[in-house]
Amino acid sequence: MQKEYIHIILADDDEDDRLFFTDAFSELKISTKVQTFNDGVELMEYLNQEDAVLPQVLFLDLNMPRKNGLEALHEIKANPKFDSMAIAIYSTSSSEEHIEETFVCGANIYIKKPSDFNTLKKVLSDVVTLNWQYHTSGLNKDNFLLRM
Amino acid sequence: MDFIKIYRSPLFLKVIFVISIAIIFFIAGITLKHIHSLSNASNWVNHTYRTAIELEHLYADIKDIEVAKRDYLLTKDQTIRFAINIYKKDVQKSLEKVKALTQENKEQRKNTIILEELIQIKYQNVDKAFALVESRINDNYVVADELLSGKKAIFDIKMQVEKMVKLEEKLLDIRKANYEDNQNLTPIIIYLLLLFILGLLSLAYFKMNADLINIKKNNDELILANESSNLAEIVGNYGTWFLNLETNEYTLSDNEYRLLGYAPQAFTPSLEDFAKHVHPDDYSYVKEIADSMIHQEILAPFSYRVIKKDGTLRHFKAMGRVVENKSNERILIGTTSDITDAITASEELEVRNRILEANNKELQAFNYVASHDLQEPLRKIETFISRLIDKESESITETGQQYLSRIKASAGRMRILIDDLLQFSRTTRAENIFEETNLNEQLENSKAELTQFIEDTKATIVHEDLPSLNAIPFQIQQLFTNLIHNSLKYSKENSSPLIQIKVDKIIAEKESLLNFQTKDSYYKIVFEDNGIGFEQEYAQKIFDLFSRLHGKTEYAGTGIGLAICKKIVENHKGFIFAEGRPGSGATFTIFLPVG
Question: Would you say residue A18 lies in a domain?
Answer without folding.
Answer: yes
